[in-house]
Amino acid sequence: MRFLHSMIRVYDLDAALHFFCDLLGLQTLRRNDYPSGRFSLIFLGTGAEGDNATVELTWNWDQAEPYSQGRNFGHLAFAVPDIYALCERLQAGGVTIRRPPRDGRMAFVVSPDGISVELLQAGEALAPAEPWASMQNTGTW
Amino acid sequence: MRFLHSMIRVYDLDAALHFFCDLLGLQTLRRNDYPSGRFSLIFLGTGAEGDNATVELTWNWDQAEPYSQGRNFGHLAFAVPDIYALCERLQAGGVTIRRPPRDGRMAFVVSPDGISVELLQAGEALAPAEPWASMQNTGTW
User: What span, in angstroms and rounded, lies between the C-alpha atoms of B44 and B21?
Assistant: First the structure.
């Protein structure tokens, strides 16, 4: 068996694509629009060789309110080449760094739909550095 | 960047491992117990070569009630070699097949914590066959 994807429902597709692609760095691998069912499926991936599993966004065109959030789902996690550079880009894009990478190793942010995303520095942790080292947590993730 | 895992919180670890491993067929790749924090992390994978992304189970030892469920998370999806054989095994294990594989191609089941799991027949769809072909949907997923 193969792990294919994790699907999340997104209320505002533009906001979700801005978060996951423009800011986080995922790529749109394919998009299928279903006008008769009034929904679209967008598959996002890292583009890294051998990274087969994707994040599937389901966008129901007529969804009238944001989707509810639960605690049974935890987060999506990605290894990133430079956690400081990524957190800086996210922050500049208006994303709150809920768990800053004080240890040069781990951060948590949240998507526009309330999906937590864990960022882990690939390889060795980076040396502690400001502004992250002294930044406090914000909210939950 | 690399897609590492999707984390879900599980209330009853034995029930979750029975569902994901004994019935669905995932393997425990590693388990870390943190007695000081009173939680355990269990990483499950398909074992297929090149399938790097995993499902991380977080088990908080002192969680007093089942985790809440939301609609922003959709499901985990796996390609499987024989969707009929797998659905039969799941059903024999007490799992309700909420969306039976009437088309020989797609089914949905739900984990003990309310996490939907999509099963997709690898390759070509199987020929329609009973009891699946005439089985109705049950609940939501």
Answer: 8
